[in-house]
What we know:
TIM Barrel, two-stranded antiparallel ribbon, 8 helices, 17 strands
Amino acid sequence: MDVILPSPHFVYIANSRVDIxxxxxxxxxxxxxxxxxxxxxxxxxxxxxxxxxxxxxxLALTVAETISKSVARDSRRIIFKGSYIxxxxxxxxxxxxxxxxxxxxxxxxxxxxxxxxxxxxxHTVSEAQAAAQVxxxxxxxxxxxxxxxxxxxxAKTGKPINIKKGQFLAPSDMAHIAxxxxxxxxxxxxxxxRGSTYGYGDLIVDFRSLPIMRATGFPVCYDxxxxxxxxxxxxxxxxxxxxxxxxxxxxxxxxxxxxxFCEVHPDPPNAKSDKETQWLLARVSELFEAVDMIxxxxxxxx
Length: 302
């Protein structure tokens, strides 16, 4: 039996109709693009890994040097992620980060020291323009994914863009958001699933969102760590259930994604942000193994 996705049945991307009324017999073909020397959307998994926030230069280098070994040893495609500011904190006394200038200096140091590509999230038009001078991939936070001026500014930098789906949006709505970037002259776009609001203080992942977003033709990323968050459940900061990270990651790989995003930290219980959902750096190989296992099994049954 063919599985028909929910309405709407089509959207318009740059004035061209895109049919998202798919069946299992109609595999989606995405448009690959490059981030530096890494191709996204060609069938090989891309990893976006790093700490939630750039706590220090030394911590960033520790994480980057560890994950860069997988690039050399296993030829994995890895982009280092680190936020220079966490602007959407619930409490005013929560750690926000080193700030734009120092954060970009840290990211530039990571690039030079390890050779890794780097990404960070931007929150304003001026930040997008500044960050584009250093990073290889711009990230639009989920809470800001509908901000037209931010999407357009990021697109006009010419850098590839990773747009996170808001926890409050239907996956089909992301086609309209991507259209803003395309209309601004940039079609190097990836869409990221990071969970949907489920009542108060919880998120749930509707895995139908992955093929729905991928039907737009843009590569899709699964955010493994934020998808297990429990927003605002830890006394004014986000809690989470890290024990579900690997099972949900396996499910996302089985459904089909082009990239995996996961925040990693050498000491999650003492991290300055998202301490309950960041993955232990020393166990990063378990993330790779989980994906490799599902990929191999899928190939055996193809």
